[in-house]
Design goal:
Layout lengths: L4 H7 L13 H4 L32 H4 L3 H34 L10 H29 L9 H11 L6 H23 L7 H28 L5 H19 L3 H10 L4 H11 L2 H11 L1 H9 L4 H11 L5
Helix pairs in contact: 4-5, 4-6, 4-7, 5-8, 6-7, 6-9, 7-8, 7-9, 9-14, 10-11, 12-14, 13-14
């Protein structure tokens, strides 16, 4: 919504007697980066939007036969998934939880100022993503569509079915899990000289913020989890490995759709995924991605880390 300079000054406690003509909010707000955004460079055929080491199916012979343009398109679709996952985590999980966390008394490991800063960061990341979509389409022609995120839907479903008296616990636990898991993926997704520079920059900026968020949520969890009642602790001990698995398990149906969108038929897509996805390797990747929360929960004496390890070892693609 447009805002007048006088309104902006009034909001900060300074009354502007002669307001200037209306300007866009992003031009006058303190939380803005539009003046520092660099122009997007031209996209080359060799550019990718996501690290192919996280996309083993992109190196399958059937995909290679389609050429580099298909691999680039697959990387765009995985990056699109990342943007949608991030947006829904930040607004639908983390900020929803922070509203509950602000009401918890006697927590000293994170301040109200810390939590409100994270709350602001998360909304800002979503705005960054929206502006990135616009710049990307103008420069590259790729449309980064807004779609549901399967992994976030799985996490939210676990919160939604929680008993009413445990609902807030589940929401906060979901944020503690997602905020301590996402940084590893961010570091890996943008790695590589072939990553399109604006994508690498976005992932790096987001990753720097998320490292700070991770540290805050580790501190909070380390104080909050021991403070809950025995019954609440038992409930969380059972819920946490389910949340971790829901968030980290590969989104095979989405990858299948991606493969079909670049020219494979359904049977070929099934073959590519079946020959590219090693369940044992997926289990190892899930364990590595969950290193920070696993260590945290083990230190707190919870058994959920071992149950998550069992889930990771037993993961198999859906039939």
């Amino acid at each position: 919504m447009p805002i007048d300079d006088g309104e902006a000054d009034s909001a900060s406690g300074v009354l502007e007697m002669n307001p200037s003509p209306q300007r866009l909010w992003r031009e006058v707000a303190a939380v803005t980066r539009c003046a520092t955004e660099a122009p997007f460079p031209s996209l080359t055929p060799g550019h990718l939007f996501f690290n192919v080491s996280l996309m083993p199916y992109a190196m399958h012979p059937l995909v290679c036969d389609l050429g580099q343009s298909a691999r680039q398109r697959l990387s765009v679709l995985r990056f699109e998934d990342y943007l949608n996952k991030t947006e829904r985590v930040e607004l639908g999980i983390v900020n929803r939880a922070i509203e509950k966390m602000l009401e918890i008394p006697r927590i000293t490991s994170v301040t109200r100022d810390d939590l409100l800063a994270i709350y602001t960061d998360e909304g800002f990341h979503t705005w960054m993503i929206e502006r990135f979509r616009q710049h990307c389409q103008r420069t590259t022609g790729y449309v980064l569509a807004r779609r549901p995120s399967l992994s976030v839907t799985r996490v939210q479903s676990l919160c939604d079915v929680a008993p009413a008296h445990y609902r807030n616990l589940a929401i906060i636990a979901a944020a503690c899990v997602t905020e301590t898991l996402i940084t590893t993926t961010l570091r890996q997704a943008g790695a590589g000289d072939d990553i399109y520079p604006p994508v690498r920059a976005l992932l790096a900026e987001h990753g720097a913020d998320e490292m700070r968020h991770q540290a805050a949520f580790v501190r909070f969890s380390g104080e909050w989890l021991p403070s809950v009642s025995k019954d609440e602790g038992e409930y969380l001990d059972a819920l946490l490995p389910e949340l971790m698995t829901a968030f980290l398990a590969p989104e095979i149906p989405a990858w299948h759709d991606h493969l079909c969108s670049v020219g494979l038929d359904a049977m070929q897509a099934d073959r590519v995924l079946g020959e590219s996805i090693d369940p044992l390797e997926v289990g190892v990747q899930m364990m590595e991605a969950a290193l920070v929360p696993r260590r945290l929960f083990a230190r707190l004496g919870l058994s959920c880390s071992e149950r998550f390890a069992q889930h990771a070892r037993r993961w198999r693609p859906p039939r």
